[in-house]
Amino acid sequence: MTAYIIRRLLYVIPILIGIVLITFLLFRAISGDPTDRIAGKLATKEYKDELRHQLGFDKPLWPQFSALHKGDYREFADNQLFNHFKDTFTLNFGQSTQYKQDISTMVKNGAGPSLAIQIPSFIIALFLEITIAMVCAFQRGRILDRLIVVLSLLGMSFPFLAFIIFGQYYLAYKLGWFPISGYPSHFGPGVLRYVALPVVLGVIAGLGGGVRFYRTVMLDESNADYVRTARAKGVGETSVMFRHVLKNAMIPIITQVVVIIPFLFLGSLLLERYFGIPGLGAMMAEAVDQADWPVLNAMTFVGSLIYLSALIVTDICYAMVDPRVSLR
Q1: What is the pLDDT of residue 89?
Q2: Contact (Cβ atoms closer than 8 angstroms) between residue 267 and residue 280
Q3: Per-residue pLDDT tens for 197-254?
Q4: Would you tell me which of 43, 128, 179, 280 could form a disulfide with 39, CB atoms 3.0–4.6 Å apart?
Q5: What pLDDT score was predicted for residue 328?
Q6: Closest Cα to residue 322, out of 224, 220, 252, 248?
Q7: What is the mean pLDDT of residues 172-183?
Q8: How far, in Å, CA of 308 to CA of 300, rounded?
Q9: 271, 167 contact by CB (below 8 A)
Q10: Would you say 78 and 160 are in contact if contact means Cβ atoms under 8 Å apart?
């Protein structure tokens, strides 16, 4: 397994190089020089030139191969492409062009509020989805199973924004059970009061799709040959579901979980924007609105690292839950 992990880590390197290159092409080469937009219409030429120098946009976009013929390797490496790769891989993302703050600090400050919403939502939703899917597998074809399917389809039919508006207006404004919006300046027990409603809405909004997916997985496993054999041998239904069906359904469950993991860190755009939570989702939305390319580059790279790491962990989990999977 060690050799496999090392090999997968080596595979990550060219993928990250490709991601960094694509972000450079999108944010630098195609988008052009953002100095005029950042400085404003009334800025002087001297100020724009100084800002362009601070951002590194006064340097060549690509390596100057003519410098190699002169033997000037420093000039060859002094360009926007090399600097972009160097800064990204050393996690030196620079400053936000909108807020003039260090991006690493902004990511650290925004990760807490995002995780305070996303992790409880993820854990509660995953538990409820698998539990309800198991109930459907127990009651397959019966009234309860059909009722759950209908409710799941109804839940999937409503847009996420409708849940947010209903929760803010009725549960927060009318009933006063939760704050309408806001987030405390310091992390502590008071955070629970502000994240409770976003967590509830996040769980409810994603419950329908999750139940439908896991129900399909459970029913597919319930109809497998090994399950019929276990039932023919007189194994009880509870043992069949928990010892056989659930165990063999872990592969698609793990795969589904891995897809969600990066979004736990990146946050929820709608929840954070509407509830005034200063998380990474709101930060990315503002970065898109203001074309804050350094922030977008940082979030893209960090999100890619998390996703690629999750894929490696997934393969290891496959081998742990299914003896048929061998990592070589």
Answers
A1: 87
A2: yes
A3: 888 888 888 888 888 888 888 887 777 777 777 777 777 767 777 777 777 777 778 8
A4: 43
A5: 63
A6: 248
A7: 82
A8: 12
A9: no
A10: no
Rg (CA), the chain: 25
Which residue, 109, 64, 81, is CA-closest to 22? Answer: 81
pLDDT band for position 302 (50/70/90)? confident
Q: Which residue type does 187 have?
A: F
Q: Is the pLDDT of residue 68 over 70?
A: no
Residue with tokens 């219409």: 41
Mean per-residue pLDDT, 158-175: 84
pLDDT of residue 284: 81
Residue 32: predicted pLDDT: 63
- Residue 10 reports pLDDT greater than 80: yes
